[in-house]
Write a structure and sequence with these properties.
Glucose Oxidase, domain 1; elongated; two-stranded antiparallel ribbon
Length: 231
């Protein structure tokens, strides 16, 4: 049997937000985090969180990059296959990471980087092959506007609350967070929803009208169940 992570590789972020809505969760899509220079990829993995706060000029200095509590230190703590989610408070005037740090994440086996902030060294970052979702690009380094304060703790990113080991799914529509206790539900319900939508698309292509089809009434539910048996 496939694991929830494997199942979620075939579930869109749009479907996931709908499944979470069934559980009353409306803030699951991270505003500002969009694909950076690519399309057609979907990534899934447990969240490894990073937290920035507003700039404190005595702390946010180039010298801070050599301290134990630094983005460099955080990268060395990242487990393989994690999805890094960085809370940059939506600040777009300073890039939180560039090509060297992204390449180190690749070497650490990081699956992807998600942030509501921006990147720098765009050409170099793209060359690393690290999948990135962010709010754009800026030349200044992070310490111009941000202070890095820690990792693997609860954060807010793009209007969402994210806890370590929640599951992140990101694709062309952006990045969503699944609370870890709801991962099994979202994976199983999401897979069924994707199958239903594939049937609905076929029906619409044949010229079917939407009322009674989407969402399906009892007659169309029976037709869908019969179709599933023929697959």
């Amino acid at each position: 049997m496939s694991s929830p992570i494997e199942i979620l590789r075939n579930v869109t972020t749009g479907t996931i937000t709908t499944m979470l809505l069934k559980k009353g969760i409306r803030r699951s899509w991270m505003a500002g985090a969009m694909p950076f220079g690519f399309s057609g990829k979907r990534v899934v993995g447990p969240a490894f969180t990073l937290r920035f706060v507003p700039v404190r000029e005595d702390l946010a200095t180039p010298e801070s990059w050599s301290k134990p509590i630094s983005t460099r230190g955080a990268i060395e703590a990242m487990p393989e296959n994690c999805v890094v989610v960085a809370d940059a408070m939506g600040i777009t005037g300073a890039g939180i990471f560039g090509d060297i740090l992204c390449m180190r994440m690749v070497k650490r086996g990081v699956t992807a980087l998600i942030t509501d902030g921006v990147m720098r060294d765009k050409h170099g970052v793209l060359a690393t092959g690290l999948p990135v979702w962010c709010a754009g690009v800026a030349a200044p380094a992070s310490v111009n506007q941000l202070t890095f304060v820690g990792w693997n703790e609860p954060i807010g990113c793009g209007g969402c609350a994210i806890f370590p080991d929640d599951v992140v799914v990101a694709d062309d529509d952006g990045a969503v967070i699944i609370p870890k206790d709801l991962v099994d539900f979202v994976a199983n319900e999401g897979a069924e929803h994707e199958l239903l939508e594939s049937w609905l698309v076929q029906e619409v292509e044949k010229g079917a009208k939407l009322p009674g089809l989407y969402p399906p009434n009892e007659e169309n539910k029976k037709r869908y169940e019969a179709w599933k048996k023929t697959r």
